[in-house]
Amino acid sequence: MDLHQLRCFIAVAEELNFGRAAARLHMTQPPLSRQIQLLEKSLGGALFERNNRHVQLTHMGKHLLTESRLILKLADRLESSVQLCASGETGTLAMGFTAVFSWNFIPQLLKELTVKLPGVNFQLFEQVSHKQISSIENNSIDVGFVRHVPPNPLLAWLPLQGETFVAAFHCDHPLARKRKISLSAFNNEPFFLYSPNEARHFYDRITDLFAFNDITPDFKYQLAQTHTILGLVNAGLGCAIVPASSRTLGMPNVTFMNIEGVNIQAHNFLVYSKANPNPVLPVFLKALSEALITL
């Protein structure tokens, strides 16, 4: 039994006439009759009662008609689904991102993509940048939103809009009344720094900034996540330099201020493997480029 035989059977069952069924299928009657005979043989019973005047379905034929329609409907749906999958219009895309991206960028991006790519299922993975790179290299994720891209010829990357750094002080600190502060204000202040292992990009940007300007804060802890650092600032235990998007975290006792003369930015990149075979990837990249216009 195959799909062609089922289509032949359905045509005869609906027309109840071999001649009309053959015409409907654009074939002659003898090959059609042969297909019905082969189907009856494989099923072990008659599907039609035939005489010179009438063709009628047997009980088994009526049952097969119901099931055959379902089978062909599923087959047609399967064909369409596979075609959409091959074109990248449906499927799954595994997306990595750092915690900072999750505060605003990722939610807004997903809002856009659910409209542009309704057939794509996005799997989300919050990881620090170097872990995302490893996940991309071993095909655990398809794309990553990271702070840095290592020199790897197998990786492709797209620069995204960066963001400035701002100072974060407890609202009761004397400096919190100012709109801007100088970098020298951090001298000898208890300071929470990013981890050189888990947040290398931020660590390098901030420590290089202090070293270049001969500033020496009182370094207390090295931490991986911005919200953890701001939690300590919120408790009045010290200060920090964080990405400007940190304002969206809504820490009630934290005041954010611009730093005079500091123009360094936190870099943002989309990265993926050039060898990634996922057909959704090029469709995603096109949709992303369109979404970035408004994000």
UniProtKB/TrEMBL annotation:
<dbReference type="GO" id="GO:0032993">
    <property type="term" value="C:protein-DNA complex"/>
</dbReference>
<dbReference type="InterPro" id="IPR036390">
    <property type="entry name" value="WH_DNA-bd_sf"/>
</dbReference>
<protein>
    <submittedName>
        <fullName>HTH-type transcriptional regulator BenM</fullName>
    </submittedName>
</protein>
<keyword id="KW-0238">DNA-binding</keyword>
<keyword id="KW-0804">Transcription</keyword>
<feature type="domain" description="HTH lysR-type">
    <location>
        <begin position="1"/>
        <end position="58"/>
    </location>
</feature>
<dbReference type="GO" id="GO:0003677">
    <property type="term" value="F:DNA binding"/>
</dbReference>
<comment type="similarity">
    <text>Belongs to the LysR transcriptional regulatory family.</text>
</comment>
<dbReference type="InterPro" id="IPR005119">
    <property type="entry name" value="LysR_subst-bd"/>
</dbReference>
<dbReference type="InterPro" id="IPR000847">
    <property type="entry name" value="LysR_HTH_N"/>
</dbReference>
<dbReference type="InterPro" id="IPR036388">
    <property type="entry name" value="WH-like_DNA-bd_sf"/>
</dbReference>
<dbReference type="GO" id="GO:0003700">
    <property type="term" value="F:DNA-binding transcription factor activity"/>
</dbReference>
<dbReference type="Pfam" id="PF00126">
    <property type="entry name" value="HTH_1"/>
</dbReference>
<keyword id="KW-0805">Transcription regulation</keyword>
<dbReference type="Pfam" id="PF03466">
    <property type="entry name" value="LysR_substrate"/>
</dbReference>
